[in-house]
Amino acid sequence: MHTNQEILNMSEKFDYEKSQRMYDLLSGFNEIVLVSLLWIITSLPIFTIGVSSSAMYHVVMKSIRKKEGKVISEFLGFFSKNFKRIIIPSVLFVLVLFCLLIGLNISQENSKNSQAWGIAGYVYRLMILFLGMLGSMVFPTFTHSEDSGLKVMYTGAKLTVIHLFTSFTLALMILLVVIINSWMFVLLLITPALTTLIASMVLETYLIDEIESGHIGEKEIIHEHV
To answer: Which of 12-21, 75-84, 190-199 has the lowest mean pLDDT?
Structure first.
């Protein structure tokens, strides 16, 4: 049978653990919002969206999941250090997406008058989906490799093909998030980092395997098992 003092100590311990869990929850939410804001701001030039996405993945893994380093300093540090290496793939990604969206728009405008344009519309949609699959693999790979942009793009493309179902699922998740954000713009304050957090729980296994197999050059940061 517990004494009054033991009961009091147990109650205080429970209250402390409850307060600590609440603090961790609020702290994690604040970090999610901060990372999302940093991603939005650094993505405003549009062509930097690939660099911003790689920086966001880096911060989600290191600052949010592993609790190492400050969010702002880690994000901006990675962004500036790796800008030159990632900007070319980022620009290529945006240009291809822009061209595909123009093609899709033209095909939709002409689909009523021509069955061929209707078919072209489906082709454009599939190509946009595949581009999303590539992006979901390529830009996180930059966080684990010091290799050149072209080599990382090759590795990311290989991962996309090898893990086709996963990359397809991630691309659909990104598309769903885009649709949700178009309906409720305020959710953009949490969805970028939250989506990245969910994706990282799957992608880390593949990226670690690539490092251990020697297929990508090892980077200093976050490739331990988490």
So the answer is: 12-21
